[in-house]
Design brief:
The protein is an alpha+beta fold. The protein has 8 helices and 4 strands; from the N terminus they run αβββααβααααα. It is globular, with a radius of gyration of 19 Å. The mean pLDDT is 96. Bound molecules: zinc ion.
């Protein structure tokens, strides 16, 4: 099995687009302050970001420039996030979702098991450290905060297919009691698992991921 990760190639391809000025503000929503359409946004800054990609079980740094746009109406700035990026996260979205799914989609898997791929754990190329089980715990906490994204995606899918069973499917999600000790954690686990299901159904319905256009429109919240 291959570890879930965005590829170095995908990151390099985005970097080439940045260097050729091919990143447009089209994926961004209108300015929430003054309603100026994103097509009028101007490039404000380039910011280099480090991403962790997993290459044959080694966690390696890949650098990529993200583009920040500015609203000409009020000066508010907005970042364009490529499909592999989630704000404030260094691992790629594919790793974050894949390892979180290892934990969430099985009743028995522990955090220690969720970081494993074929009985070993991806490790950093520069030292002996490996992907930590607590990292998956944190990723799931972050995902559970994407409430607006889930709600918006759900509404779009119900508009597309009003007789869809999706609400029933989401309501049926259960988390075994041994996976949580507080009601708050239970809520987070259910919310994150719902996000994974919504993403799969959204892809099947619209042939595109929630990430990143819809997520950006929802302000990654
Ligand atoms: Zn504005």
């Amino acid at each position: 099995m291959r570890p879930p990760t965005a590829t170095l190639e995908a990151i390099k391809a985005y970097q080439r687009k940045v260097e050729k000025s091919k990143i447009s503000p089209d994926n961004l929503p209108p300015c929430p302050r003054c309603s100026v359409d994103s097509s009028f946004f101007k490039i404000h800054a380039y910011r280099e970001r480090r991403f962790w990609v997993i290459v044959e079980m080694f966690i390696k740094a890949a650098f990529c420039t993200l583009v920040r746009f500015r609203c000409p109406g009020c000066g508010k700035t907005f970042t364009d996030y490529p499909a592999f990026a989630i704000p404030h996260k260094h691992y790629t979205r594919q790793s974050i979702m894949g390892f979180s799914a290892n934990y969430l989609e099985s009743d028995d898997t522990t955090y220690q098991q969720a970081v494993m791929v074929d009985n070993s754990v991806p490790g950093y190329a520069r030292d002996d450290a490996t992907l930590a089980p607590s990292t998956i715990h944190r990723w799931i906490t972050s995902f559970s905060r994407f409430i607006k994204i889930c709600r918006t995606a759900l509404l779009l899918m119900l508009q597309e297919n009003p007789v869809s069973s999706i609400c029933r499917d989401l309501g049926r999600i259960m988390i075994p009691q041994r996976k949580y000790t507080t009601q708050n954690r239970k809520k987070q686990l259910i919310g994150s698992r719902q996000l994974l299901l919504i993403e799969a159904l959204f892809k099947a319905t619209f042939k595109t991921s929630i990430f990143t256009k819809l997520a950006t429109h929802c302000g990654f919240s």
